[in-house]
Amino acid sequence: MKTYVAHRLGIAVLTLFGMSVVIFVLMRLAPGDIVDILFAAAGYVNEADKKLIMQELGIDQPIWVQYVEWLKGIFSGDLGKSYRYDQPAWDVIRPLIPVTVELAILATVISVIIGVPTGVISAVRQDTTLDYVLRVFSLAGLSMPSFWLGMVIILGLVAWAGWIPPLTYVSPRENFPIHAVQFLLPALAVGYRSSALLMRITRSAVLEVMREDYVRTARAKGQRERLVIWRHAFKNAVLPVVTVIDIEFAFLIGGLVVTETVFNMPGVARFLVQAILWRDYPVVQNLVMFIAVVVILSNLVVDLLYGWLDPRVRYAE
Amino acid sequence: MTRSCALTVLGILLSIALAVTIVKPAVGQAPKSGGVLNVTQREDLAQGFSIHETATISTVWPSSPCFNNLVLFDPTKPVESMDTIVPELAEKWSWQDNNRNLVLFLRKGVKWHDGQPFTSKDVKYTFDVVREAKDAPAKLRINPRKDWYANVTNIEAPDPHTVIFHLKRPQPSLLMMLATGYSPVYPAHVPPAEFRTRCVGTGPFKLKEWRRGEYIEYVKNPDYWAKGRPYLDGLRYVIIPERGTRTAAIQAGRVDISFPGETSKAASEQIKAAVPKMVIRQVGSNVNDNLLLNTKKPPFDNVKVRRAFSLAIDRRSYVKAVHQGGAVVGASMQPKPYGFWGLLDKDLNQLPGYGKPTDDKAKAKQLLAEAGFTPANPLKVEVKTRAIAIYVDFSSFVINELKQVGVDATLTQIETAQWHPLATRRDYLVGTNLTGLGIDDPDGNFYENFACGSPRNYTDYCDEEVMKRFDQQSQELDTKKRMAMVWDIQKRLEMDGARPMMGWRLDYFTHWPYVKGLVPHHNIYNYGRLQDVWIDK
Question: Of A250, B2, B34, B247, which sits most exposed with the smallest number of CB within 10 A?
Fold first, then answer.
């Protein structure tokens, strides 16, 4: 197991390094820069002043020098300075992370609570009315983009109750009930879509193992149906389900752009889009690296879970 | 008088009395103090509170409560002109030496938010920095309004409460420039760069917190020089980038007032249907949609081709189709009743694109043919614009109109980061553009957008005779005479296809009825101080 973990960690570090190069180069290749955007306010670009500002921001240096400076900064705990906000990039990024992580966790929990049991029920009751109803429910979830559902929730609340969730972040310490409602609605909008995917994966995985010999054997031994399903069938069908949960969670960390925008949540994804439009390189680089770290870490966790759940996976040992 | 007649008269009088009572309940109502006003902010601050380094309402609107100007456009009057300028940090002013010196007498006892006294040194410092005087003690990173003060030769501060602006030639509009939201007075003891992260002003509200991407919060300035003001305890600008969420937020009462210039006619109708008691005020915005034709590149160096393009686009249909009636036609100055200098309808009707569409399109074809473009040899152009919906809608209409006169036009969308470098390089033949004007004054428009050599004169239109006329109207002290000159210039610019105007956007400024004392102006930039606003609930 130790070799397996070390191997996975090595791959994770290499992937992060590759990501850092790609992010850095891609941002520099995008046309226009922060100075052009700053001058947009003036309505024209003054070339002499532009050079001075580029010098001030350090973006007149060769790209490799800028890259090395950034890496050096990361290892010394200095993520650079946001061009737009004129303050440390970490101070800009720090408040965004808890919002997105909480939203992603809540949405994932909701998707698991809805998706896994309905998937199992749908498989067990294959081709019954309940199965068809649950499949339509999941199809609807997959067909509705979460931003659209979010907008419907907001407009519906305004039209029917004259109310929408708070538009600025309310911390749990400040007011827990309001905080809960503020997060619950967008988490529901996103979680519903994820739950639909999870339901379908769970259903097909359970259906597959239900036909296996060991399930038939368990039944033949006279075990109760509930034990057969959850202990024998579901436990063996859980690997693809865990994979989907992981992929969905990792996707949510960077993919909540529209939901965060519709619900006006000050999270990572919404801010990242603004930072890209502003060509605020230090903020973009560090935010994308944060997302990459989350994705790689969650993949690592799943890889380790695989090894734990199914000893055959520990091929490296 | 018969009895029935007397009863009728009495009835009419009672009806009038009742109507007056119903329509004007707020008249004479004493303002109440207290409460926090939730204000819509469409995007996060660009460059913090540094108004002098920006040209966007997204900075001016949320930064204005922090500052004061020397003079200001009367917050209670929607039309802005020389007659509606009121004192702010300057208690009074006087033109001297045949209108070559503007002497301003400053208010005494005013303090900056950090407790330092405000003096004439601050005024001299601010405007020396903005006009980039040789001995200016600081430099702005970006300076969009330097040209406004090109006629100022020297600023003198003979004593702590007097400032004198010395001019090369008379320029009455200098006072207009000092009255806009773009002209706050900065403290001499705070470097301009610091305004990108914090705000030290003399204004009615002090900055409490700017939480990036979320909100900007102000509290009442207890030491404000205007006794009894502001009425509000604070302001909270809630940053809502998504338009649909902004509309929902005001409908649900999460914010109390809309963002200037952002509510279209269609959106206002939707809000009114949902919340009938909502107050919606139709005002001008001093923002125009205009067509850019590169006068330095063929075939647009030929005035016939430019005029043909102008003739091809039916302005009245443009306003109906692109703005659903939420805009008005006008030449290069905002039209009446929203603006002061706009051409009258009878004059507009004589200009290309404002007459009978079939006749104008026929004339356009004829002029194109004279320039060598026929159905067998059509003119092919790429219309460049910013990749933003309002620009694309505008361009699509233009392309369709051009096709009707045989021009083979296609659309190229340019990302915002690329647009201004491209415009600065004049790297286009045809473009579509929006221009917001900080003041409704010819000097604030002509020199910036039509003068030879101006960086924002994107079409590079340059005519020495027109330049002379710009200067003549600028120093004319008689408003009537100046008006006639300005009208002639506008006609000339439209005939020359210098930058054909498509229409002037209207705003449907929306607020809840309990918000009192807020009068939106026919200009989005100049009513953000909010010191007279109060809440009645």
Answer: B2
| Global confidence as pTM | 0.91
Q: Which long-range contacts (CB under 8 A, 24 or more apart) does B48-51 make?
A: B48/A85, B48/A86, B48/B195, B48/B196, B48/B197, B48/B198, B48/B199, B48/B210, B49/B195, B49/B196, B49/B198, B49/B199, B49/B207, B50/B140, B50/B192, B50/B193, B50/B195, B50/B196, B51/B181, B51/B182, B51/B184, B51/B195
A38 close to B (CB below 8 A): yes
Q: Do A37 and B274 touch (CB under 8 A)?
A: no
Confirm or reject contact between A277 and chain B (CB < 8 A): yes
Whole-angstrom Cα distance, residue B269 to residue B265?
6
pLDDT tens digits, B347-405: 999 999 999 999 999 999 999 999 999 999 999 999 999 998 889 999 999 999 999 99
Any B CB within 8 A of A233 CB: no
Structure ipTM: 0.90
Give the chain B residue whose CA is nearest to the CA of A165.
B254
* Residue A57 neighbours by CB under 8 Å, 6+ apart: A34, A35, A83
Sheet holding B162-167, edge to edge: B90-96, B101-106, B162-167, B152-159
Q: Which two tokens stand for residue B234?
A: 């604070």
**What is the predicted pLDDT for the residue at A313?**
65
Q: Which of B44, B196, B254 sits opposite A86 (nearest CB)?
A: B196
Whole-angstrom distance, CA of residue B482 vs CA of residue B171: 12
Contact A270 B213 (CB under 8 A): yes
Share of chain B above pLDDT 90, in %: 90
